[in-house]
Amino acid sequence: MTVALLSVRLHTDQDVVVARRWTRMIAGHLGVPGQDQTRLATAVSELSRNAVQYAGGGQVDVQVQPAQRLLLITVSDHGPGIAALDDILAGRHVSSTGMGLGLAGARRMSDTFDVDSRPGHTVIRLGKRLPAATPVTPPDLDRVIRAVAAAQPVSPLQELRVQNRELLDALAALGHREEQLAALNQELENTNRGVVALYGELEEQAAQLREANRVQAMFLSYMSHEFRTPLSSILGLTRLLVERQDGDLSSEQERQVQLVQRSAGELLTMVDDLLDQARLRAGRSEPHLDDFEVAGMFAGLRALFQPLVSAPQVRLVFGPVAGLPTLHGDEARTTRILRNFISNALKFTAAGEVNVWAIVDGRSEWITLGVTDTGTGITAGDQARLFQDFSQVGPPGAGRGSGSGLGLSLARQFAEQLGGHVQVSSAVGEGSCFTVTLPVHVRRPGAPAGPGPDAAAPLAGPRVLLVDDTPGDRERLRALLAPWRAQTVEAASGAEGLTLVAEAAPALVLLDLSMPGMDGLAFLDALRAQPRGGSVPVLVVTAQVITPDLGARLKALDAAVLSKAQVFAGNPDALTRAVSARLGTPTSEAP
């Protein structure tokens, strides 16, 4: 619906003045702000003047569209039409008389604008949106009409004075905005000068930090070398005493010498850590690549750590190495990584087992070396900072541990330098599993690298649920599933596994039988009782002896069985065949 408020016929310049005045008055009564009143009145004045000058006359109609809350003003004439209309509206038309400037200006000063022009007929509609607080009911619009009709006519001179006043107000507002713009420009200039000065300070500080790092690396390297000489002498002398090359020792003297020897050895390890850290920071640490066997590396680690296992309730176990490929990499650094893992595992395992193991992926391109323990475990918060420089984490509730705090940080840096990565999975009270995944054939720095175990391609393979209470076994199973790019979801108990079955909808479940609380059989019974659980493939991977009765029950529950000894014996073919039968052949893009 449209409500007509006013019409003005245009014949002379006096009519143009009247149209301008009525437009401004109506806009004011409808709550349009002052400057917008002036803009709208000026636009109507320009269009009305064009109608009188170029078409010999016309008409102005002022209306309101209540539904759209729009003040609509129509200027129409029956002249020759507007030539080059598109160029005028686009700002491309140039006229010595200024023709077209009024039309383009009116378009800028209105909220809506529409032109219909052809020979003998031109209609220009421009609209101004009304404020939200303005009432536009029929009684309100009637009051506007009466107020405009009751207004006293004014002379052209009076209207000219009003226009001059509006012009002065506009010039004052423009001057104020220019002052604001000048102030903003000055502020921006000051800010730019401050930014330039700040960049200079930052560059200076960066140079100072680089120099400080260089000096620190030199100091650490120098002091490490200086410490190594006397420590090596101390260790050599204590070895002579322990071997009794200069005479017998009493039992107390032997104990004291061994204590000195152990302390000197720990201090030498800290010095070695500092020296390695200094070399890495200085960029002077390059890997020494050569072929080596996992069996020989494990033998050296066993000889080093077995004498240090003094508690009879702790067992240090090295897993099978048969079938593992020859590695091409840095044996010293790989050994150093495992040495850190084993040392920490023995330190925080009061009873149980520390298991050192190795497993290769299905294509023998990547090897995962791991150390699993049954120790105190590590909180999630501590796991996040384990591999940071000088970070020391002890058992929950304990204070700061001994050592330099660089061992795991160096392990991470060594692994990354060799093209691999380290990981940890742990739960408080259940133990921890530290792993390092490395290429079977390490490439020299700068050589093109193959896709890694965490290559850019996302893990878009099938979702597999691992239900096992041993973190290390879950880690090994995850490594074996790498060729399928499996999205693994892990549960440490049968109850947790049932929850994840409903949430994750796995394509396969790898299940351990011996778990606290809900064991594997109870999990299977509950799974098969679920509406969707009857069709989920389940592969039992267990260390438990499978009796005929147990085998029959598992078969009835539609679960295949593999022994952990078979799966983790260094030859994963059995698991590969079983998983392939359920998930298909691994993709060639898998790591």
Automatic annotation (TrEMBL):
Residue ranges of domain Histidine kinase in the record: 222-442
Catalysis: reaction(s): ATP + protein L-histidine = ADP + protein N-phospho-L-histidine
Modified residues (4-aspartylphosphate): D512
Stored SMART domains: HATPase_c (SM00387), HisKA (SM00388), REC (SM00448)
Enzyme Commission (EC) number: 2.7.13.3
Molecular function via GO: histidine phosphotransfer kinase activity; phosphorelay sensor kinase activity
GO CC terms, sorted: plasma membrane
Membrane-crossing residue ranges in chain numbering: none
Pfam family, any one: Response_reg
Residue ranges occupied by any Response regulatory domain in the UniProt entry: 463-579
Record-linked InterPro entries: CheY-like_superfamily, HATPase_C_sf, HATPase_dom, His_kinase_dom, HisK_dim/P_dom, HisK_dim/P_sf, Sig_transdc_His_kin-like_C, Sig_transdc_resp-reg_receiver
Coiled coil: 157-205
Keywords, in A-Z order: Coiled coil, Kinase, Phosphoprotein, Transferase
UniProt-recorded name of the protein: histidine kinase
Organism: Deinococcus metalli
